[in-house]
Design a protein that fits this description.
Chain lengths: 453, 179
């Protein structure tokens, strides 16, 4: 191979495009010719310089900014389209003009001649569930209110979604009527953990339990319009829901979807009938009414209104910034909770957890006691039997036998126990008969005390 | 252009703007390099990069040959650059110059390369952009630009040669500047 031939093939060689035989000839020439070797090195170096410059051209976060601009622009276009469609008067005036009539006649004639489906294209497109699902893909944030019959205050929710549609974070404000024993609750879901503020109990729990997560996600099926309508579409395709769509000619009026579920399985979440209102312009859901079938017909069980699609949510919504200073924290994320079951039976481990709790208290090992008591605040445990309280823990008298828990929903058992303590200089026995022990939800092999102390 | 790009374009046409982010991520270095070479000012270029992609998204319906997405995209960038240059106030050039003089050159920025790159003829610049900034193989470029593979490598070879000449010329000029 000559030098000029070699130079011509440099790029092909670098790009790995030379056939085997030519590659060998090329390499054998390079071995003999230092000038061509230098040329190759310089070209390779230039390529590397370009590659490294390309890496420096990566703009931070530009893809998110572009997608956000697209979504804003799309929403704007949809709104403009809605306004235009709400002005049919102008169209009527134009159509009344003589010249338009002639032109229209000509168009109709041509269309007939060419067998064009002109009217299919000009008529308002027929609404399909898929449109709401698609429109909901661009929803990044939402606020909803869920009203229940005979309850004045609604459940409030603010949620932000990630680009892939998963929930990024949400805040839920639940009035006392939802669970009177808990009282009013505030919930923030963030970073895969829930912070639950039980206002009546003056405590905040930070949990990462899968069961709570699943419950919250079920709740999201009606709170997240995308999931809700995906589910509805799926049920309709499987003939498990009868879906009726009424699309008014007046573009300003919402589309009404009435879905009646034939399968009882969805009743706990969606009831047995759902009536949704859809905005004709944006195809986003405005509200959803859920009904339960009863002997007397359909009874309303919940009414959800959706607000503020893609309106930025105040970041303070996702922070508890007015917690009382003396609130008790049970942090199950930062601390390991409970005791490993190992070879013990359920009853044995329940007793062992209570025994280790009292033993830790006797040893003043409050961190360990906290671990046995679902992460209860160390300071609270420390104060329980110190000078200030005029009580001193002396010893354990008996633990067990295990009894069933009066509330089976807790999934726990009761471990009665008796301890001795000194109160105002007097030695007394005290029996706790409500101490509940159960498995830590997301760690099936671990058990913890969950109340009754 | 990969199959994946065509799939992503179809998803976008289906009304899923989120899928567009992958295309933005993949092609923004090429669009950014091109716009910086045309507009000189990196902050103007960043706005223009966003504008290019937003226009591309809404223009996807008009893209006849999906394999040619990247060169079509650079065409949009070219129009955006021309518009921005037209709309710029005469004073902006002065401000830009002042800004360039006052900002510390970033170590990671290869200004010599960027200057030389800006002076390349369009055809050469496009091929360099697709090869290095959009990270396409020569075969992909051939498909994208509807060119025989041999012409791609020849053009790339000439682009390299001219880029090297421009870089050497710059170096010589810098050395002439009296100390």
């Amino acid at each position: 191979m000559r030098c000029d031939e070699c130079r011509e093939k440099l790029v092909d060689y670098i790009e790995g495009l030379l056939p085997d035989q030519e590659t060998q000839q090329f390499q054998s020439h390079l071995r003999q010719c230092s000038q061509c070797r230098t040329e190759l090195d310089q070209l390779t170096a230039l390529g590397q310089r370009l590659t490294s410059d390309a890496k420096n051209r990566q703009l931070a976060d530009v893809e998110n900014r572009v997608v956000n601009r697209i979504i804003c622009e799309q929403n704007k276009q949809l709104k403009e389209a809605a306004v235009k469609k709400r002005q049919p008067q102008l169209w009527r005036i134009i159509m009344k003009a003589k010249i338009t009539k002639l032109a229209a006649a000509a168009v109709i004639l041509i269309a007939a001649l060419l067998s064009l489906t002109l009217f299919d294209k000009t008529a308002a497109p027929v609404y399909a569930l898929e449109q709401t699902i698609q429109a909901s893909h661009s929803v990044r944030s939402i606020h909803f209110r869920e009203y229940h019959p005979n309850q004045e205050s609604p459940i409030l929710m603010w949620a932000e979604f990630l680009p892939d549609g998963q929930v990024k974070q949400f805040r839920l404000s639940v009035p006392a009527w939802d669970a009177p024993q808990d009282g009013p609750k505030e919930i923030i879901w963030q970073d895969n953990a829930a912070q639950i503020w039980f206002k009546k109990k003056n405590s905040v729990m930070i949990v990462q339990e899968t069961e709570i997560k699943e419950q919250l996600q079920k709740g999201m099926e009606k709170g997240d319009p995308k999931r809700l309508f995906q589910k509805l579409d799926e049920l309709s395709r499987q003939n498990e829901a009868d879906v009726q769509i009424e699309q008014p000619d007046d573009f300003a009026k919402p589309i009404q979807i009435t879905a009646t579920f034939t399968d009882k399985e969805f009743e706990p979440i969606l009831g047995s009938r759902m009536v949704a209102m859809i905005d004709q312009a944006t195809k986003l859901a405005l509200s959803v009414r859920l009904f339960q079938s009863s002997d007397t017909g359909y009874k309303e069980i919940a009414y959800i209104e959706f607000y503020d699609y893609n309106q930025p949510i105040d970041p303070n919504t996702f922070i508890f910034n007015n917690l009382p200073p003396d609130v008790r924290r049970f942090d199950q994320v930062a601390h390991v909770i409970g005791l490993e079951q190992e070879q013990m039976t359920d009853d044995q481990i329940a007793v062992e957890v209570v025994r280790q709790f009292w033993q830790a208290m006797l040893n003043n090992d409050f961190a360990k006691a906290s671990q046995m008591y679902e992460g209860a605040p160390v300071e609270t445990l420390e104060k329980a039997f110190t000078d200030g309280s005029k009580r001193k823990l002396l010893g354990i008298v008996s633990i067990g036998p295990v009894q069933p828990h009066p509330n089976p929903k807790t999934g726990g058992v009761i471990v009665p126990c008796t301890i001795t303590m000194e109160v105002n200089g007097e030695i007394v026995k005290h029996t706790f008969d409500k101490i509940g022990v159960r498995q830590v939800y997301n760690q099936p092999g671990r058990w913890t005390i969950f109340g009754g102390l | 252009m990969t199959q994946n790009d065509i799939y992503l374009i179809e998803q976008c046409l289906d009304g899923r703007p989120d899928e567009f982010r992958h295309l933005v991520k993949r092609y923004q270095p090429a669009v950014n390099a091109y716009l910086t070479s045309q507009l000189h000012n990196p902050s103007n270029a960043e706005d223009a990069v966003q504008e290019t992609f937003v226009r591309a998204y809404f223009g996807l319906k008009e893209l006849k040959k999906r394999e040619s997405f990247s060169s079509w995209l650079l065409g949009i960038a070219n129009r955006v650059a021309k518009e921005q240059a037209r709309n710029r106030l005469p004073l902006a050039d002065m401000e830009e110059l002042a800004a360039q003089q006052t900002t510390d050159p970033n170590d990671s920025d290869d200004f010599q390369l960027q200057r030389a790159f800006a002076q390349l003829p369009d055809a050469y610049r496009e091929i360099i952009l697709l090869r290095f900034y959009a990270n396409q193989s020569c075969q992909q470029i051939a498909q994208n630009l509807n060119m025989p593979l041999g012409s791609v490598t020849k053009t790339l070879s000439r682009a390299y040669a001219q880029l090297r000449q421009l870089l050497e010329k710059q170096k010589a000029e810098e050395n002439e500047v009296p100390q």
